[in-house]
Amino acid sequence: MSLHRILTVALDSDQDVVVVRQRARQVSELLGFSQQDQVRIATAVSEIARVACHQGSGGRAAFLLGRNLGRLHLEVSIHPGTGQRHTARAPGMAEGLANELNEGLSRTLPELALISAHRLMDSCDVEPEQGVVTAVTMRKALPPHVIVDSARLADISTRLAGSPVSNTLQELEQQNHELLATLAELRERQEDLLSLTRELEDTNRGIVALYAEIEDKAERLRRADEMKSRFLSNTSHELRTPLSSIRALAQLLLDRMDGDLTGEQERQVQFIAKAANDLSDLVNDLLDLAKIEAGKVEVQLAPVVVDNLFRALKGMMRPLVDEGRVELVFAPSGFSEAFDSDEGKISQILRNFISNALKFTERGAVRVSATYDAQHDTIAFAVVDTGIGISPENLQLIFEEFSQIEHPLQRRSKGTGLGLPLCRKLAELLHGRVEVASEVGRGSTFTLTLPCRFPQPSPDGTA
Question: Which position among 94, 190, 281, 350 has the lowest Cβ density within 10 Å, counted as fewest Cβ atoms?
């Protein structure tokens, strides 16, 4: 750490305390300190200088410019005179004295001066010798933008030499001006603080009102959601009976139970049967969604074996496969252990994945596989197709209710737009997740990942 001497002031009498305070203010001003820092430095230096003068004549105050770790700082060292001295405490006493002062204990004049210097400056070091203070060194870092070179130091020394030393009355007037300025600044800050407090109170009232409005809207949404679920449930139940009748009657006609049909009649009845089947699928999906949202769907836990699940799915999906253009492949899983879950709901999710894959794959294959992850103890069911694929901007759209992607195959094979949203909700009900990866023109991969050990509910009802 390098030091450059700026000025030295003798401390022999009380008048010298006035001089050292004035010089401290002048030096700090020339070094670019703010008005507030100038007052802090002058006060700290004068307090220590006053104590040094009381201890005897022959003291001195040295003002130096130091550099430590690339940062400039003003260093003021005050050495008491050789007269009678007050006893002081060991190094670090300024911190301890500050704590004790906060506790309301009375202190001597030197101790109070050290406490003030420690609070006003960046650092205040005491050099004791056999319990007596031999030097007090205070430091204050210069503002970051200030640059002081040798030419600037020479200019500062010249200006200090040409600056007159004011008398006690003038210094008192200066202190009064500083005190008035400080009081005015404190009053301004107090007014700003009061204004900010009122603004915060208004903001808090606004936030409280906003929370109340949000809670009210949340309650309205909850009631609307309940009404929607109730409406869907009731409507689905009301539609199921006539739909079942329409499907049964259409099948009777197609089975020639009441006599032969002409070609045109058979085609029209097939349209009726297909429309009734599509509407029945929509009603079933709506009812399932309503039940899940109402929390009325229960998970039927049982051991699930992947090979048994795949055999059942292969039999159910065979009628949908056009073997001339698309091949449905169930890959051996290599995982023979049973895991805990609801086989019916897993089958419902995979059926939806497979039917969509078959619907949107004109040529190629649909491959179903299961992979066990020992690290996370999960099993992932993947349905991979070589179909039309899905663009990145539509990957989340397909999981929104009643949303469908525009494509010629979509128009040829209309769906309800509820299958994938239902799959995602069922997966969440099974503590799993549904993911999709796709590339336009190259196919899609839908994955259902489930835990092999179904989480048990905790005493508070959460899983």
Answer: 190
| Best CA proximity match to 303, nearest among 430, 453, 447 | 453
- For tokens 């998970």, the residue is 299
pLDDT given for residue 75 in this prediction = 92
pLDDT at residue 321 in the model: 84
Q: Determine phi and psi for 96, rounding to 5 degrees.
A: -65, -40
CB half-sphere exposure, 60, CA atoms < 13 A: 7
For the chain, list the domains and their CATH numbers: 2-165 (3.30.565.10), 220-293 (1.10.287.130), 302-451 (3.30.565.10)
Identify the three-state secondary structure at position 425.
helix
User: What integer pLDDT is reported at residue 306 of this predicted model?
Assistant: 93
3-state SS, residue 141: strand
Q: How many CB atoms lie within 10 A of CB 254?
A: 15
**CA 356 and chain centroid, separation:** 38
5 alpha carbon, distance to own chain's centre: 51
Distance separating alpha carbons of residues 373 and 115, to the nearest angstrom = 66
Question: Listing from the earlier edge strand, what are the strands of the sheet with 59-68?
Answer: 2-11, 59-68, 71-79, 132-141, 123-129
Cα–Cα distance for residue pair 214/221, rounded to 1 Å: 10
pLDDT of the residue at 101: 38
Using DSSP's 3-state secondary structure scheme, residue 363 falls into: coil
Contact between 291 and 233 under an 8 Å Cβ cutoff? The reply is yes
Cross-strand partners of 366: 328, 385
> HSE (CB half, 13 Å, CA atoms) of 52?
30
Label residue 277 exposed, middle or buried (CB < 10 Å: 0-12, 13-18, 19+). Answer: middle
Tokens representing 403 are 């949303």
Query: What per-residue confidence (pLDDT) applies to 91?
Result: 41
**Chain segment 365-401, per-residue pLDDT in tens:** 999 999 999 999 999 999 999 988 888 888 878 877 6
Beta carbons of 142 and 33 less than 8 angstroms apart? yes
Q: What is the DSSP letter of 373?
A: E
**Closest C-alpha to 10, from 73, 65, 63:** 63
Residue 435's pLDDT is 93
- Map residue 402 onto helix, strand or coil: coil
**In the chain, which residues have pLDDT < 50?**
84-106, 411
